[in-house]
Specification:
Layout: H1 13-37, H2 43-89, H3 91-103, H4 109-119, H5 123-134, H6 144-164, H7 173-198, H8 203-229
Length: 230
């Protein structure tokens, strides 16, 4: 007997948050540190500015995640109230919308009418059905906004400390930059590889793409800083 196992990746909220936070955490402080390395003569300035950027960036990114989660929840709640009102005020219109959903699936008129009539007996399930299949909205986790802010913020901090860490152990900004480039490029490659792998894309292409983006940003920042410094 043949067995078929379907392998689909459903991107969880946690994975999505980590990808958002880590992507910016690795690239933005890396570009900032690279730019400062071409303009200043001491690593203390780079460390101070880098840590300030990581702190500000994690708060800003976390706040963005929180607001996105709250907006999603508020939108869902407002649409649900609208559907509840329509079920009470114009039930026949809503029943026709149920029929339309099943008509698009190829069900017969008799089956459409039967399902619509049965569904109308339970208004809570009726509203849930309309939310999901008419509007395409899934009920968001009430803790989503808070969790998203925390996940994105922490991921940004972790990612941001990677390119900054070499500057804690070197006296010369250029030496710090060399080690920072080595460590960050490796981390960008690994991060891009697994990001692409879990989302079903070509992992090698994903690794190269993420690495190139971070490297180009850092290189541009370095040479622009050197240009203005001279």
């Amino acid at each position: 007997m043949d067995t078929h196992e379907e392998k689909h990746f459903k991107s969880s909220d946690l994975v999505t948050d980590i990808v958002i936070g880590m992507s910016d955490g690795l690239t933005v402080p890396f570009a900032l540190a690279a730019g400062l390395s071409g303009a200043v003569s001491t690593t203390a300035i780079i460390i101070t500015a880098g840590l300030a950027e990581v702190a500000a960036g994690s708060i800003a990114m976390g706040l963005g995640g929180y607001l996105a989660g709250k907006t999603e929840q508020d939108h869902y709640n407002s649409e649900m109230e609208r559907e509840r009102m329509e079920v009470e005020v114009v039930p026949e219109v809503e029943k026709q919308e149920v029929r339309d959903v099943f008509a698009s699936m190829g069900l017969s008129k008799e089956t459409q009418n039967l399902i619509a009539d049965e569904m109308a007996k339970d208004k809570a399930n009726w509203v849930d059905f309309m939310m999901r299949y008419e509007l395409g909205l899934e009920k968001p986790d009430p803790k989503r906004a808070r969790n998203s802010a925390m996940n994105i913020g922490i991921s940004y901090v972790v990612g941001g400390l990677v390119p900054l860490s070499p500057y804690f152990f070197t006296a010369s900004p250029i030496d710090g930059l060399k080690y920072s480039c080595l460590i960050t490029v490796i981390c960008l490659f690994i991060f891009g590889f697994f990001k692409a792998k879990v989302t079903g894309q070509n992992p090698w292409a994903g690794a190269i793409r993420v690495t190139l983006i971070g490297s180009v940003a850092a290189t541009a920042a370095f040479f622009i800083a050197r240009l203005f410094n001279h």
